[in-house]
């Protein structure tokens, strides 16, 4: 079973923080002869998700299953997907996803690779196995708090460059691009919930002499 969705949540607002794994880890369990190899990765977009999946599949090309779940973003921007990859419906990918969802993790992917050991575990046994190995994996990974961000591009006069840098530092924003010529041009990554405040601060500091790109 494969499930892909964009969540319809309306509580993003200022609540733009989420949890993600602190470090990429791997754990392995053997249950009734079957090997369950769980791998966790940090992912920022769906390209990174696919790259992580491709890496695991290439590392274990002869495995019976590569079941996975991932979550990206938060609130209205939350996207997720999970797959049983041939296991009985809802016994694998959904169980991995439930663990991620229960811990409110995002920008995280978990892939559980299984080598069948010859003994059938039954639906209940598979549900317990995939849930347990995912929980153990995330405990090993640790957790850190992150924030959703947006990008803004703008231009202002060179006389305001020092002020702009001070504002960027005060908001703990990140300069992605900058150019200094007749005008000073910036592309900056800012925490989503503070974007309106950031733009207002720039306008006030430059006496309105800032042009934002739409």
Give your account of this protein's structure.
The protein is an alpha+beta fold and 214 residues long. The protein is 30% helix and 36% strand. It is built from five helices and twelve strands. A six-stranded antiparallel beta sheet has the order 1-6-5-7-4-3, with helices on both faces. A four-stranded antiparallel beta sheet has the order 10-11-9-12, covered by helices on one side. A hairpin with a 6-residue loop joins strand 5 and strand 6. The protein is elongated, with a radius of gyration of 22 Å. The two termini are 41 Å apart. About 4% of the residues have low confidence.
Essential attributes:
single chain; 214 residues; alpha+beta; 6-stranded antiparallel beta sheet; 4-stranded antiparallel beta sheet; 5 helices; 12 strands
Number of strands: 12
Please give the largest β-sheet.
6 strands, antiparallel
Order of helices and strands: EEEEHEEHEHEEHEEHE
Roughly how much helix do the residues carry, as a percent range? 25-40%
Low-pLDDT regions = 6-13
Structural class comes to: alpha+beta
Gyration radius from CA atoms, angstroms: 22 Å
Q: Please, what is the average pLDDT?
A: 91
Total helical elements: 5
As a percent range, the share of strand residues is: 35-45%
Terminal Cα separation, in Å?
41 Å
Task: Provide a short characterization of the protein structure.
The chain is 30% helix and 36% strand. It is of the alpha+beta class and 214 residues long. The model is unreliable at 6-13 (pLDDT under 50).
């Amino acid at each position: 079973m494969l499930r892909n969705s964009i969540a319809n949540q309306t509580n993003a607002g200022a609540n733009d923080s989420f949890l993600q794994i602190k470090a990429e880890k791997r754990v392995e369990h053997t249950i009734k002869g079957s090997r369950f190899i769980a791998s966790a990765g940090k992912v920022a977009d769906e390209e990174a998700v696919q790259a992580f999946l491709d890496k695991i599949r290439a590392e274990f090309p002869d495995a019976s299953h590569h079941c996975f779940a991932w979550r990206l973003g938060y609130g209205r921007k939350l996207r997720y997907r999970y797959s049983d990859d041939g296991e009985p419906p809802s016994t694998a990918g959904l169980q991995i996803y439930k663990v991620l969802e229960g811990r409110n993790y995002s920008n995280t992917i978990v892939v559980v690779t299984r080598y069948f050991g010859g003994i059938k575990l039954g639906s209940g046994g598979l549900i317990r196995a995939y849930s347990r190995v995912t929980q153990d994996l995330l405990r090993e990974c640790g957790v850190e708090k992150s924030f959703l961000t947006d990008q803004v591009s703008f231009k202002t006069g060179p006389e305001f460059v020092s002020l702009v840098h001070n504002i960027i530092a005060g908001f703990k924003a990140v300069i992605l691009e900058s150019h200094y010529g007749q005008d000073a041009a910036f592309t900056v990554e800012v925490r989503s919930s503070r974007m309106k405040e950031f733009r207002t601060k720039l306008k006030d500091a430059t006496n309105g002499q800032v042009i934002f790109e739409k």
